[in-house]
Amino acid sequence: VQLVQSGGGLVQRGGSLKLSCAASGFTFSRTPMNWFRQAPDKERELVAAISSSGDMTNYADSVKGRFTISRDNLKNTVYLQMINLEPEDTAVYYCNYGGLRGYWGQGTQVTVSS
Questions:
Q1: Which terminus of the chain is more solvent-facing, meaning fewer CB atoms within 10 Å of its CB: N or C?
Q2: In sequence order, which residues have a C-beta less than 8 Å from that of residue 100 and are 6 or more positions away?
Q3: Is 94 exposed, middle or buried (0-12, 13-18, 19+ CB in 10 A)?
Q4: How many angstroms separate the CA atoms of 59 and 49, rounded?
Q5: Helix, strand, coil % in the chain, rounded to nearest 5
């Protein structure tokens, strides 16, 4: 199993970023996927989730209306589009399947400056 992330970086408040996670080693099209994040000195939290077909999504209240999770089952890739970013969104972001005891991407830093 591999989850290889790309994207992230430094952006000003109000800016946008898009994260990608390319998956291999399992049947991606049958697997719900998640994005988590972990800020310094805070627990890892679920940010967004998407069903295997992509027809159902869920978001943490803190990101609703600003973040969009999507997937391309032909490319075995899940995305997280983030707009109107706030300093509170600063964290390391991880793609995941299987929940906290599942499989994780390598993490990517998102830093939002004020």
A1: C
A2: 44
A3: buried
A4: 7
A5: 10, 50, 40
Query: Per the structure block, which two tokens stand in for 48?
Result: 């967004």
Residue 45 CB neighbours (<10 A)? 13
CB 76 within 8 A of CB 70: no
Assign 47 a pLDDT band (cuts: 50, 70, 90): very high
- Give the long-range contacts of residues 60-69, CB within 8 A, separation 24 or more: 62/88, 63/89, 67/35, 69/33, 69/35
Tell me the two tokens of residue 44.
């890892």
- Length of the chain in residues, anyone? 114
**What's the pLDDT score for residue 18?**
98
Query: Which residue in the block uniquely carries the two structure tokens 């998640």?
Result: 34
pLDDT in tens, 52-83: 999 999 999 999 999 999 999 999 999 999 99
Instruction: Round the CA-based radius of gyration of the chain to a whole number and report it.
Output: 13
